Amino acid sequence: MGFLGALPRLLLFERGGVEKLPDIISELGLGGSCMLVTGRKFARSSGYLDKLRGLLESAGVSKVIIFDRVEPNPSAGIIDDGGRIAAEHGIDFLVGFGGGSALDTAKGIAVVATGGGSITNYFYPVEVKHSTLPIIAIPTTCGTGSEVTKYAVISHGCRKDVVLGNGLVPIAAMLDAEVLRYLPKEVLAHTAFDALSHAIESYFHVRSNELTQMFSAEAMRTILENFMQAYDGDLDRREKLLYASMVAGLAINFSGAVVVHGLGYYLTEKYNVPHGLANALFLPQLIEYSLEKMPGKLTMLCSKLGMASDDPYACARMILQKLDELHRYAGLPSSLCEIGVPETELEKLVDEGLSYRRNIESCIVPPNREDVERMVRSAFKGAYA
Ligand SMILES: [Fe+2]
């Protein structure tokens, strides 16, 4: 076993913890100018924008620049603009407040502001090595785990590209479940399925190890136990999902996502399917694939989840049943046909899925074209039925 990875220097998990922003800034020795990166609506309408600005001012920050142009699936253009503005203002650190898009935008800005050029210059297989601006990440959804990861996913020309490097790991992550009070049910369901995907995919990643497997199992168990009540609005359960998404983020930070993410990206870029839902539509296919090609890993996952069985078929059935229950409870569409993807797209989906080589090749048993085609065919019909 061996691994190398970075973690945030400070990790705060506390209800109402956002109020501690000045303490975090002081403990990290940050100061000077700050760029607050967030979306256009939620931060403003919920009052958090004013609150954060006030907290930054009370921490002695001399200048606060608001960058509220975050969009779902952040584009390279917006990140480049943010990077240029941050460099012009001599920004010293960033606060990212929002879902994965806001946190990934902050990461992209931190890279461009320090390294120059366009974020497209840093797309994988390049690895960001230069020292970037520190980021304090405050997630407002319970899915991406971006607050603890080295990844930023950027939309560029109908594709999702990844920027990665240990320097992208936020210097501090502040997880305050209070913000989840406002999270719409549908977004909660989508983001929870994103976290579930991270936990499950990480398990079948070539860099999966004892540490990441512990994170995967803990995240999965927590999501499966708390999803329904969290969906119904129970804040204590939503807090558990926030915890689980962070833990799943820790899993992929040391390993990564595999074929489910690779297949989902095209649905998001072409059909605007939310990232977590796109993953949800391919998750059962990964379980079926693991049953066929990685049965030992599947039974090990089952036993870590407390569903002990030596029979991989029984394990697959148990996990699929659980996923199905959650999926139905949230009334999520269960097939590609249901979300309006025409079957003529089959070949394109296969090609696009295979084009994310990093996701395909990092699977313990990499799926070949035939395997991926079978997964896509199955997703058209829907394995949740
Ligand atoms: Fe994801």
Report the uncertain regions: none
CATH topology term of the largest domain: Dehydroquinate synthase-like, alpha domain
Mean pLDDT figure: 96
Strand order of the largest sheet: 1-8-5-4-2-3
Total count of helical runs of at least 4 residues: 16
Gyration radius, in Å: 20 Å
Strand content: 5-15%
Amino- and carboxy-terminal Cα gap: 39 Å
From the 3D coordinates, which CATH architecture of the largest domain would you assign?
Up-down Bundle
Tally of domains: 2
Within CATH, the superfamily of the largest domain carries the name Dehydroquinate synthase-like - alpha domain
Summary, kept brief:
The protein has 385 residues and is an alpha/beta fold. The chain has helices at residues 21-28, 42-45, 48-58, 76-88, 100-115, 185-203, 210-231, 235-254, 259-271, 275-280, 283-293, 295-304, 312-329, 346-355, 357-361, 369-381; strands at residues 10-13, 33-39, 63-70, 93-98, 135-139, 151-156, 159-164, 172-175.
Care to describe what's here?
- The structure is a single chain.
- The chain has two domains: 10-179, Rossmann fold; 185-381, Dehydroquinate synthase-like - alpha domain (Dehydroquinate synthase-like, alpha domain, Up-down Bundle), CATH 1.20.1090.
- It has 16 helices and eight strands.
- It is an alpha/beta fold.
- Helix 7 (210-231) runs antiparallel to helix 8 (235-254) and helix 11 (283-293) packs antiparallel against helix 13 (312-329).
- Bound molecules: fe (ii) ion.
- Fe (ii) ion binds next to helix 6.
